[in-house]
Every structure is written in C-alpha cells, then in structure tokens.
Amino acid sequence: MPAELQGFLVSLPTDAQAPTQGWPEHEVVGDTAVWFHGYLAHPGPLRTELNLPTSASPGRIVEAGIRRWRADAVEHLIGEYAAVVVSASDAVLIGDRMGLRPLYYAARPSSTVVSTDLGALVRETGAWRELDEEYLADMFSTGMHLGPRTPYRGIRRLEMGQFATCQTGRPRLRGGWRPSAEPLRETFDGHQELLRDTVKRAVAAALSSDGAQAVELSGGLDTSTVLAAATAVAPIHALSFVHPGHPGSDESSWVRAALEATPVSWHPIDATEHATFAAGPDLGVFLPAPTRRILNWAPSAAEETVAQELGVSTLLTGEGGDAVFFAGLLPWYLADLLRAGRLAALRREALRWSAESELGRSAGFWVRRAAVEGRRRWRSGRTLALQPSARIADAAPWLRREYVDGHHLQGRTQVTTTMRAPTVHGQAVVENVLRGVEFARSRHIFPPATFDLRHPLLTPPLVDLAMTTPWDIAVDPRVDRAVQRYAFAGLVSEKVLRRRSKPIADEAMLHGFERNSRWREYLGERPQLVDRGYADADAWTDALRAAGRIGAVAQFYTAIQIEVWLRHLHHVGAPRLLTGPSAAPTH
Question: Where is the Asparagine synthetase domain (predicted)?
C-alpha cells in the first residue's frame, strides 16, 4: 500500500464470483469486511445502544449500526467518517451525514472503485484523462461546486446524507439530507442554553483521547467559541496566523483578547514569512483538485510543522460557524410572512428593521429586498446571496464570452443547489451550511499527514438546531449572531463577543502574489486556461499584470487554482494498486 493513501480504496467487482480488493487491509467483522476512515462522535453510547463490547472499533460500530438502523444509520452515526461494508457480493457505502469526509466512487465495466482519497482514485482509474466541464463551469462562476460532481467526469461523490448499496459492484444511491422544517419553540434564554450545550457536546466529541489537542484560533467569534468549549475538556494548544506587516489582515489583537479570557499555550505563525503564494507555483506533485490549498501551500505546511512538533493528533477548526450562528443573515423571514399573507406582521417587522438596523434602510427597502425579492428567488430556485451577484463579465473579464455564454455561467451564479427548504428563511440557512461544508471538506483533499482535521461546528445536531431555530430568535436587526453572543457571555472574551466584523486576508494575499513574481510569469506562459478555451489571452495577461484591480479577487484566485491544477495533471503517475502484484484479493 502506498504510504500516501489517505484512508482506503476498495474495488467492488461486478462479477459475483470475483473477490473484492481493498487497501489497506480490511477489518473482519463477522462475515463482513469493513473499511473505515475518520472518527465517530460519542462511540461509548453507541456501543451500549448496539450491545457491543467496550473495545468495539469504529468500523464494527458502523457495521452494527447499518444492521440496526438501515436507511436511518446516517442519522445515528454522528462524526466525520466514510466507510465501506462488504458482505459477499453486496456492499454498503456510507459517510457522515454532512459529507465532511467525502466518499468518492468511479463505476467501471468490471467494478466500482470507492475511495476516501480522490488523488488515489484518479490515479487508479485513469479518470484524469476526461475532465468534468460542468464542475469546472461551476468553479469559474461561483468558486465551488455544491453537488455530487468532481473535477473528473468518471468520478462522483456521495452527497450529504446519502448512502449507496451495491449489488455485484453497481451502486444504487439512496437517502440524502432533508433539512428540518418544524421550528423549535423555546424562549430566547432556552435557545441560548440549547446552543451552548450543543456546541459543548460537539467540541467534546471532536477531541481525541490520544496525543495533543489544538484549535485554529483566528481571533474571530467562531474559533474563540470552539477554543472556550475545548479548554473545558482537555489541555489545548492554539495555532494562529499573524500578519505583522499587513494591518488590514492582522488579527493579533483579537487573538490576544481571546487568549486573555481563555488562557492556553499559543503558537503564532508569521504569515508574512509563510505567505500565500510563497511556495509554488510548480509544486512537483499531482494535485487532485483546484482548491485554496494550492495558493496556501506555504502557510499550510507551516501549520503542519508546528502541529507535528507539538505532537498534535487533532486540530479543530471554526469552519461553518457563520452558517450555524446566522452571521450576516438578512431578514428573509419577511418573504415567509408575505407568502403566508401576514401583511400586518410584515409591515411591523419591516418598520422594526428600518428603525433598529445599523444599515439605516427604509421599511420599503426591506420589503423589496427581503420580502418581494426573497419570495421571487425562492420560488424560482435562485440562490439567496448576501449581496446581489456581480455579472460574470465584470467579475471575471478574462473569460471568453463564448465560454461564458456556452456554459451559462451567469445562470450558474443564481442557482447553486437543488436542495430545497420549505421556507425562505430556512433556504438561506441551508445555502450557508452547504457553502461551509464544501469549504470544510475541500480541506480533506490535501489532508495533513500527522494529525486529524475536524470541524465540530458542522456536526448534525448543531446544523439541525440552526435549521429549527425560529426566525424571531435567529435574526435580530440590532446585531447578528445574537443567540451565540449571549450564550457564550462569560466564556468567550467580551471584546471578541462585541466584535461586529472580521477582515479578510486579501491585502496579505495580493501582496504575496506581487512579491512572488514567478507566479505571474508561470501563469502567463502558455496558460491552459487559454489553450482550453476558457480565457482570452490578452485579457488574462492584463489581469495578471493588475492583480486585484481587474475583476473580482475571488474569481481571480479560482482561475489561478484551476490553471495550476491543470498544469499538474501530468504528475498523476501510473496505477499502483489495481494492477500488478499488489492487486491481490482481500475478501
């Protein structure tokens, strides 16, 4: 088994008489073979409920859970994991409900190959020879794809809440996340207590029992909340990036405020020394997908080095906090009042937002922007963006008009997911959760080699609580994240709790691009974006010369990621597992 395999790779044959092949060695559970990658939250109660011994492994828990709960197993088996359970010629493919540990599969004439390692699956199946243009079009338009596609036409991934049953190697997809709809009627104080307890349980479950534990601490409210909850359970290290040379990106003062309230061992990483664009662009390895890690190669490596020196086994993030704590959520519930014909309530709430919101907008603005526009967008399946989407021609002027029109990029910016919630307010929460999940799981495409990266704020109980929090509790015109701010008063720094905004790192990132001129030279020399018909040569050259001043920064970064990824496809290498002497049967 190659050392770089992340998790497992299993080949399920279509011939019932042929053996299953899998790497690494499977776990034997009765008459089944189990491959498991990730972690289960609260394994002790699961063992008790499933009548298993205290020594039962996560794989054995999953196998027993599938037998007990069948299609509902993903609702009971909480954590971040993926697993394959094989019995004779039948198999079950399952992952955690939020899809935080992606499970990829590729159907071939003789088998379906399943893996938690996208790079290994691409290499073993040769999927790199045919790219998925639909996936790339989504990337060019919005910077992410929220569905089952991957950059490769022959590879898909399980969606949130999905599992698959395989008979003789042919997967049948089943299930899927259905967002909760019924509001949980509680007082504001009651919701504070629910949120506080749910966060504490999620963070405690994400910590491991061995090795050192750490939290990514940015100085924001979400990572400060995770840190406060984690320190109540175990000794914690805090890892932070600081930008001493870029005041617009530096958050050292906020980090120190968080540490005053929650004293832990702090390990700042100088992001000026380990800057975005400091490594690369020729990285000399196969890149499974275009992600931010390509740009952040140097800072990611620096974080891994610090964590390894500390003996960290688990690093917790604050990913998804914006979604589950309702950061910046507009009053889309006004559209629900309009849909229900509750016009008096609509007028009252619009006047309240006019009087109490710091934006200083009229009641008529809120009726038009949130009620009328929200209802129209919800009915047509269009996204509920925080801000009106820019025209692609303005956001990415380097893209060829023929490509933009031919792949309907402008329309893609408006319809980012087919998942539907029964209310407009709920739909906005769902879309924010989906974006948070996608960013979190993209970090597992290039997973750390020595520790496990976990995202406790995206655990299903916390997502469900966000979905069932009524609009009159979730959204307050005076301050966003109201429930979170009150729930963690006394636990999180008062200064951080009162923080109203958080800067983005564009200043430091753009400086990194300008400082490392080899990136501009590399990206401008025979660009694949131009050769493949995505970009106009002159417009792309202009964008490279005026980075951050032409088009939108987000679209510019996405284009760079795709260009570098395309130019590293030749590093994929030959199959190592499904051919040759290592391809021995395992079950």
Answer: 195-566
Nearest CA to 583 out of 31, 99, 82, 21 is that of: 21
Q: Which domain holds residue 148?
A: 9-175
Give yes or no: residues 299 and 336 share one domain.
no
The answer on 205 and 146 residing in a single domain is: no
Q: How many domains does the chain have?
A: 3
State which H helix or E strand residue 265 sits in. Answer: strand 265-270
d(CA 397, CA 526): 19
190 contact partners, CB below 8 Å, separation of at least 6: none
- The model's pLDDT over 428-464, given as tens digits with 9 standing for 90+, comes to 999 999 999 999 999 999 999 999 999 999 999 999 9
pLDDT digits (tens, 9 = 90+) for 323-356: 999 998 899 999 999 999 999 999 999 999 999 9
**Cα angle at 335 between 330 and 340, to 5 degrees?**
145
Question: 370: how many CB neighbours lie within 10 A of its CB?
Answer: 28
Through-space distance between the first and last CA atoms of the chain, rounded to whole angstroms: 16
Residue 180 main-chain phi, psi, to 5 deg: -60, 150
CATH number of 46's domain: 3.60.20.10
Same domain, 64 and 161: yes
Q: Which string of b and e fits 454-465 if b means at least 16 CB within 10 Å?
A: bbbbbbbbbbbb
Cβ atoms of residues 468 and 326 within 8 Å: no
